[in-house]
Amino acid sequence: MARVTKEEKKHGIITAALKLFSEKGFYITTIPDIADKVGMSVGNFYNYFKSKDILAKELVLYISEYLGSQIREINERDISTEQKIYEIVSMYFSVAQEKPEMIEYFLRVYLSNREVFGEGCEGMICVSPFVTEMMMFFNDGVEAGDLHDQDFFSAFGLFMGYLGGMVFLFGEKILPEPLESYKDDIAQNIYNALKKR
Amino acid sequence: MILHKISTMHSKNANKPKLLWLQGITCNGNTHSFLNLSSLDTLLEKFELLYLPAFETKHSLEEIVECKLSCDILIFEGTYDPLMKRADASVEKVLAHYAKAASHIIAAGSCASFGGMFKAVSPKRNSGILFDEEEKSGPLKEDDKKVINLSGCPIHPEWLGYTLQMIVNNMNIPLDELHRPLELYSPLAHHGCTRNEYFEWKVDAKSFGSKEGCLFYEQGCRAPMTHASCNKILWNEVSSKTRIGTPCFGCTEPDFPRKNLFKTKTNMSIPQDVPLGVPKRSYLTLAGIAKTFHIKRLEGKLIDYKTTP
After folding, report:
1. Which chain B residues are closer than 8 Å to A117 by Cβ?
2. Assigned fold of A52-194
């Protein structure tokens, strides 16, 4: 049997912890729960993460890097800004359905338990890969003459707040239609709101 | 008008290299700047001065434009306009005549180097003597190996002093692709700026002329993308634009003058241009993280900061 590397084990912990934190909540989930899910002893768990708080911060960085790499791939495509918006919306909704724990963790753990993410994860530190790609998207959009030049956070809040809100409604099973079916309108709404006037 | 008199000007001219200073369209700023060189007298003693504007020299401009003389070192100040006349003579012909025999030709300032400010008078016709902005299409393109560009608006007196010293001492002057001496133009104006700590932590200058804060984010400072040693070789040996709170205008680069010199061009708060050679993605990552931290010492006036509570 192939030997599982330390990196692979670490990744296993991250995946398991993401699911547990997003389903049960950050405070209710214990280290023994996580260790149990990946089939290792609690003592061994500490070889990978020194505390639950450190793991929590690592998870934000993991999600941010994952989403950042997806947006980067879209940013680097030779397509219009309007198409990029559609692709980002599409990607975000796919992640919300296929890897719901990622978005759930972000919305329900990271944004709701700020006390956990103080030192070492404040401001842009843990979300930098994701926010940087959104900066690149907006920068390129203005430079191409497609988007209205404004403060970054006004545009960022409109874009990501909208998507986060829709995924929240989806998670709460409030949406009457499948999440997929909202893609076109939402992408169009975002483009209309941000396009050059 | 004679502004400067060299005391030993007419003595011992034998075997000294002949120096001639011609002008195209110019504000005379480079001539004036050169007058601020502290070692000017001792430097000029090493040359036979045929003609320099604002100096008492051996010949008048009227004699120079007769094109009966020759020089070893030709300095040209101002934008080149092929239709321009000086002392009723075509600048095109006078420049061509003196460039032929000269061993070194110095473009003094950004106008002579790349076209500069006065290129705007007739953008298609006017240029520098070797370059038209970044394109090597000026009148001296056949003599390109002789041309040294000392861009700057105006020229830094020490840079001209250095170049003349190197020439008179028969020293090799390595140049960059725009014919600027590497020794003077490989640093960026950012190097040596006293505001670097504010740049590192992304703290803006709160208002124009303030002693604290970086001028890159709001006030249009081009120092991180401008080849110039202004903050290593200080102006008048004491200061520089950025040190006193004026943004670097990027005056040594071929695209000078740009518009909106006092305003940083941003796209959704993100600087359009980032430090030379730094990928924008890397810059934004670092900038975003640096902005997360609030360094109290850098947020107020330095004189108000107390090290003890």
Report:
1. none
2. Tetracycline Repressor; domain 2 (1.10.357)
